Amino acid sequence: MGSKSGRHFLQIPGPTNVPDRILRSLSRPTIDHRGPAFARIAREAIEGLQRVFATTGAVVIYPSSGTGAWEAALVNTLSPGDKVLMFETGHFATLWRSMAVRLGLQVDFVPGDWRHGVDPGVVLAKLTEDRDRAIKAVAIVHNETSTGVTSRVADVRRQIDKAGHPALFMVDTISSLGSIDFRHDEWGVDVTVGCSQKGLMLPPGLGLNAISGKALTAAKSARLPRAYWDWESMIEDNKAGFFPYTPATNLLYGLCEALSMLLEEGLANVFARHRRHAEATRRAVQAWGLELVPLNPEEYSSSLTAVKVPDGHDADALRKAVLDRFDMSLGTGLGKLKGKIFRIGHLGDFNDLMLAGTLSGVELGLAVSGIPFKRGGVTAALDYLAAEVSTQTAPSMQTVL
Ligand SMILES: Cc1ncc(COP(=O)(O)O)c(C=O)c1O
Fold it and tell me: Are the CB atoms for 331 and 345 separated by under 8 Å?
């Protein structure tokens, strides 16, 4: 295939577009990871991450994907045969459960329809009936990247407290961290799992854990085997700004730059920007006459929108048309949603015009791929965006154009 002019649109829900500021920082020469200049960078990265996780506790950074950070959360805190309560919210919750089973944990996996988040009432019921306190951890996915459903973490915490249950609370924030409000300390989360390639706007390669004091205490008696993922040696070496093995030096430069960008914009503004783009996207979907995957508006994701194609149509054929004709990558349907849905990523380094281009690409793709839809999605989104920046009632974009 010949080369294409213009920029590729990477609108999958992670990895996300890496901004130029971060790309430039990544290109700096690699330095001695046991020298003083590195120690300053490591400390800056850890302190900045504490602000993004909203914690004053320990944060560790692995050279890994998010899956590694999942494993770290489990192996540092649990012992063989321990019971874990998990919820089938979608593909990623299912993968985390498989990992837990393979590690020798017993998982009570609450079935789900992949269109709803974790039901806090079920958390209360399960923990209340667990009178002998066999459940050692409740582990949930904050933002199910496969469905565009965001679970209500604070509500789940309230139900754990209401049951008076001592289980650890673990939350995967892989596609919410730095995009959707999350508060590790305030919401009483014991281990938060994150990674670099989504809201943090970095390439893949960093796995993250934020860790409560309670989780650190649990780690002292936890018996699942661990070596590479061991928190203790990480936290010990991190105190002086170092790592027990070679860190991803250049990704840490990028991480410091990403954290500066997020904190310069202000986390509250970053979350508001994501909410606004998500709402504009849903207006487009509604105008197209297509159906969203999430069924509960309280659980709509701000970082991605998952859209069903009508029965008898193939979402991957639409994605192929969009890629081949308009040079834009959209997220595929995962697991049992393969071919049935496509996902629009609107997280990370993103603005109104990028969203306008993205939605135009989807609308063009729908038009060329023979999927029945109504025109006007892009206009509906632009109307919403215009009204949201103006203090006065904005005229319809149709009139403006
Ligand atoms: C919610 C969620 N959890 C876990 C993962 C796995 O992360 P990784 O692919 O970086 O190992 C992903 C990946 O997209 C994800 O979206």
Answer: yes
Which tens digit of pLDDT belongs to each residue from 3-24?
A: 789 999 999 999 999 999 999 9
User: What is the rounded distance in angstroms from the CA atom of residue 89 to the CA atom of residue 97?
Assistant: 11
> How far is the first Cα of the chain from the last one, in angstroms, to the nearest whole number?
35
- Per-residue pLDDT, averaged over 294-306, amounts to 98
Pocket test for ligand 1, best of 175, 192, 198 (most atoms within 8 A of CB): 175
pLDDT of residue 1: 53
Query: Tokens 């999958």 — which residue?
Result: 12
Q: Is 67 in the pocket of ligand 1 (CB under 6 A)?
A: yes
Angle at 306 between CA 15 and CA 304, to 5 degrees: 45
pLDDT of residue 390: 53
Q: Which two tokens stand for residue 390?
A: 């103006």
Q: What is the total residue count of the chain?
A: 401
CA distance 320 to 184: 39
The pair of three-digit structure tokens given for residue 103, joined into one six-digit string = 């590690």
Distance 174 CA to ligand 1 centre (A): 6
